[in-house]
Amino acid sequence: MKQLRHFIILPFLILLFGCSEEDSNLSTNYPNGLVNSWVESYEESPGVYRPSGFMTFPSSRFRQVYTFNKDGSCEFLVLSSVDAHYIQYGKWQYDDENKMIRIYDADNHLLRDLEVKSINATKLVLVM
User: Fold this and answer.
1) In the prediction, which pLDDT does 28 show?
2) Could you tell me which residues come within 8 angstroms of residue 28 by beta carbon, excluding any fewer than 6 positions away?
3) Which one of 11, 19, 26, 77 has the largest count of C-beta atoms within 10 Å of its C-beta?
4) What is the pTM of this model?
5) Angstrom distance (rounded) from CA 89 to CA 74
6) How confident is the model over 93-107, as a mean pLDDT?
7) What CATH number does the domain containing 50 carry?
8) How far apart, in Å, are the Cα atoms of 45 and each of 25, 32, 91, 126?
9) What does the angle CA 101 – CA 106 – CA 107 come to, to the nearest 5 degrees?
10) Span 124-128, mean pLDDT?
């Protein structure tokens, strides 16, 4: 009976203390609509993004795209000097107090720090 009690308590303790502090800092308190794929609409104004599929954008040599997933993963397009643009993967968190989206690589190095000016279902505006 004593062994059974330890068997039941041990998984609970692992769950309780097993999460690192770093993981618990990832915010799920982000603005409605942020989880989406956002395409730069610089024809409107610098820093304006629209959901992908919102409109047909004119041809462009480069148009920034950010995709923020609900699970905290993200991807974004990286500008290449030789037009060999590529997608970089990472994880993101939202800092509600400072209205910042922070994007990290797999080693938790900060890659991007994006300040949100405003957001709704059809428009994300970042401070440029």
Assistant:
1) 59
2) none
3) 77
4) 0.76
5) 6
6) 96
7) 2.40.128.370
8) 33, 22, 27, 10
9) 100
10) 94
| DSSP-derived pairing of the beta strands 86-95 and 100-104 | antiparallel
**Is 18 domain-assigned?**
no
Structure tokens at 31: 């603005």
For the chain, the domain total comes to: 1
Which tokens is 47 given?
């820093």
Residue-number span of the structural domain to which 67 is assigned: 25-126
Q: SS3 for the chain, per residue?
A: CHHHHHHHHHHHHHHHHHCCHHHHCCCCCCCCCCCEEEEECCCCCCCEEEECCCCCCCCCCCCCEEEECCCCEEEEEECCCCCCCEEEEEEEEEECCCCEEEEECCCCCEEEEEEEEEEECCEEEECC
Residue 108 covered by a domain = yes
- 64 occurs within a structural domain: yes
